[in-house]
Each structure stands twice: as structure tokens, then as C-alpha cells.
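Side project, low priority. Logging it here so it doesn't get lost.
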Amino acid sequence: MPELPEVETTRRGIAPHIEGRQILRVIVRNPNLRWPIPRTLDRHLSGQTVEKVSRRAKYLLLTTAHGTALLHLGMSGSLRIIQDGAPAEAHDHVDICFTNGRALRLRDPRRFGALLWAGRKPEQHPLLENLGPEPLGEDFNADYLYRRSRGRRIAIKPYLMDSHTVAGIGNIYANEALFLAGIHPLRAAGRISINRYEGLTEMIRRVLGESIQQGGTTLRDFVNDRGEPGYFRLYLHVYGRTGDPCPVCAMPVRQIRQSQRATYYCAHCQK
């Protein structure tokens, strides 16, 4: 599933091609994604100029003077810049066509993605209004995580992955950041000191930043706007490495389940 670095990689890839460009029309071949694509989407977007392509958590926002379209890549979605009129394949569900002869194509084999109209106040859309701060933003810091966690028994990994706590830290990056910070994924969030949260926030920023630089992490379906995979998987320390030697102490990496997700850790290095 595309997570924050993959979505940010996609944003950086498509933004130079569509910002400042006028939309000619929207072609919807299959509206039946995770939520139905609004029938009014073409009316909202046609004739409008994309002023900005931004990201909130794992959502992409295409902002125009008329309002904002909200896009989510789901489990297997990808966006490509193509020539308008290029033949569509089976899973190419939407083309946003521009007056310069180019188009932004949404491909989604599993159809868990979304393309919705968020209007003039996208921050008030139900999918966005209750999200926590961005992990790469100024509002996210050790003091915030520490204060919010006081008295809570929830384990630190699901605490980090709760979008109400912080927006967009997916499973891969939660595993990696906890390993680098030396924090056991089962430790209660409310029993972690402010000093350890300082180290954790630093590692979260580091892991996400490095993944963005590598174009994201390809484990199954993700490709960027040019159809290329992300390469951060080559630098993973524990995620997906059950039984492999820990890169620090050489003890075998362990795997457990937390909140229906796989968790990877080193029992020796993480306390």
C-alpha cells in the first residue's frame, strides 16, 4: 500500500506537469472505487486551473479556484502523466485531461483508491478533519507525542499508526523508526519518557525523509509517476526480515501481530 513517502514521491513527480495547467475535461471510465467518484467531478474541474498539488497524510489534493479534488491511491493505485488520448488498459479508471495535450491517469487494479470532491474547505472533509499533525511538519515533536500519550496503555506502534495521533506513519516506517530509536513495539506509549520520544521523533523524520529520497518503498504494487519502483526497501533494517540477523547485534529479527498488522523488531536492541 502506498504510504506517506510513496504519496509524497508521487506528488513531487506530477506537480511540475499539472500545476498552472488548465483542465480540459475529466474522463471517468469506472466510478466504482472505494467510494463512488462523484458524477459532478467533470463539471467541478473542467475549465479550472490546477493552482497547487499538495499532500495531507496519504491523500493528494488538487487545488483549483473552484475547490479541491481529493485523491487516495488505496492499495495499488498509481498516477501517470500521459498523452491525452493514449489507449486505456483495463485498470485505467480516470483521466484528468489538460489543454496542453497531456493527461493525469489514475490506475488502480484493486479499486481501493478514491477520487472525491472536497470543495473549498478540504480541511473540513470527513476524511481529513480529524487527522493528527504531519510527521514532517512543525507541529509534530516529542513534547506533543509525550503529552498525548500520558496515562495511555496502548502499545507504541499502534499509537504511532493512529491517524488521529499523527497523520501518515504507515506500518513499514513505524517498524523502522522504533528499531532505530531502540524502543520495543509492545511498550506502552504512556510509559515512554520524553527523552526517548525525542529520539523517536528524530528517527521518524529520518526514516520518512530517507524513504522519500529513495522514491518510496516497493514491496508489492507501488510505482511512481514514471512507472518506476521505490528503492527504500533495500535499506530496511527489520521490516520483512523475520529470522534475518539484526544489523546491529546479529540476533534474529522477530515477528508478531499487532492490530492486524505485522510487527518486526529485535528483542535485544529494542527495550
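Brief comment: Confidence is low (pLDDT under 50) at residues 218-225.
Revisit when time allows.
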